[in-house]
Design brief:
single chain, 357 residues, mainly beta, Jelly Rolls, 2 domains, 7-stranded antiparallel sheet, 1% helix, 52% strand, globular
């Protein structure tokens, strides 16, 4: 079983560090994001990632009735069910991808299992300019781009998903990433603090970690570390070295951007559910890059995580630790052999998510 901290970027890595953009240039144009609601919630915000902006173009939030099939009812779209009376607010002069949340004047209820079409449209007298990030970023429910959801529709065609999100006052859905970079983490510890919930059982085995990364061939030290993080500084449980100062075998498995590499511990490690742990890489030597993602707020990061987690960093001496709800590193846990919680009855260990009786 793979437990993700960043949705599909932890399982089937796709480089998120380049992007294309879609530009509004006239009135009567639109971009809608089509997705199926995971839960019933009251949407109070729509978010999208702006790649460039000039002036004050008249753009507003709108929702349309979705009737089925890949295509929406018509082009131009009809059957609109919500039009915000106010334009969105975008600061002129944006030149780098910037994720922005906009408030709906009237919150809208979406129902679990229904398909929603929500996005932006231009109206009035066109002025200024606005471009949005169009890329293969998607939610945690579509790791390998095979489900077809979410996708987008513009005034000219169906297209791949835009970087977007919807949110209530407490929860977010979509891919609301503010920024993503390959970050040099030389002379640091970089990882994730996490807690596997007790609802999943009593104990489990952590076999290793999947992580997209890249680095130079000459390392002084690279080690995968597991800590008990119930307090800081955390207590080291185990570590495994993956570098010895020469080209290591896993380097050949990485592509130029950051390949998906599996790092196993020497032996599977027993974790107790409900206990906070930390896992990550400690490194010193030549440049070593990890995929680092930042978010506007913790609820945005949480929508991509399967379990409670936090970005975690430490200095070269492992004495100063920083835990963040708005930072995540792209890595995931390979866990198996869940056992029932104390007092539970009926069955043996859970192997790979399946209860063995």
């Amino acid at each position: 079983m793979i437990l993700n901290f960043l949705g599909r970027y932890s399982t089937g890595y796709q480089g998120p560090f380049s992007y294309s953009q879609w530009t509004f240039n006239a009135t009567g144009q639109y971009i809608v994001n089509v997705f199926t609601a995971e839960k019933t919630m009251t949407i109070t915000q729509l978010g999208m990632c702006v790649s460039s902006s000039t002036g004050t173009p008249p753009v507003r939030i709108a929702m349309w009735q979705y009737t089925g099939g890949r295509d929406l009812p018509s082009n131009p779209l009809t059957a609109k069910i919500y039009t915000d009376p106010n334009p969105i607010s975008v600061t002129a002069g944006i030149t780098q991808p910037t994720f922005i949340w906009w408030n709906l004047t009237t919150p809208q209820v979406i129902t679990r299992g229904t398909t929603i079409a929500i996005g932006l449209e231009t109206y009035g007298t066109w002025s200024g300019g606005l471009s949005l990030v169009s890329t293969q970023d998607q939610s945690k429910r579509d790791y390998t781009l095979m489900s077809g959801q979410p996708y987008a529709r513009t005034w000219t065609q169906n297209t791949g998903p835009f970087r977007f999100g919807v949110a209530s006052t407490t929860e977010s859905y979509g891919y609301p990433v503010q920024s993503s970079t390959l970050t040099n983490r030389n002379n640091t510890f970089s990882g994730t603090a996490f807690t596997i919930p007790t609802s999943m059982g009593g104990t489990c085995l952590l076999q290793g970690v999947l992580a997209p990364l890249n680095g130079e061939s000459s390392f002084i030290n690279l080690s995968l570390r597991l800590y008990n993080a119930t307090s800081y500084p955390p207590t080291l449980i185990t570590s495994r070295s993956f570098a010895d100062g020469s080209a290591t075998s896993w380097l050949n498995a990485m592509n130029q951007d950051a390949g998906q590499v599996y790092f196993p511990f020497d032996t599977p490690q027993t974790l107790t559910t409900g206990v906070k742990y930390a896992v990550g890489f400690n490194h010193s030597g030549n440049n070593f890059n990890l995929a680092r993602f930042t978010f506007n707020r913790a609820q945005d990061a949480n929508c991509l995580s399967d379990i409670s987690s936090f970005g975690l960093e430490a200095d070269s001496t492992l004495t100063t630790w920083t835990e963040s709800g708005t930072v995540r590193y792209a890595m995931s846990l390979d866990v198996t052999d869940f056992t029932p919680a104390a007092g539970a009855s009926g069955g043996g260990p859970v192997i790979g998510g399946r209860l063995i009786n």
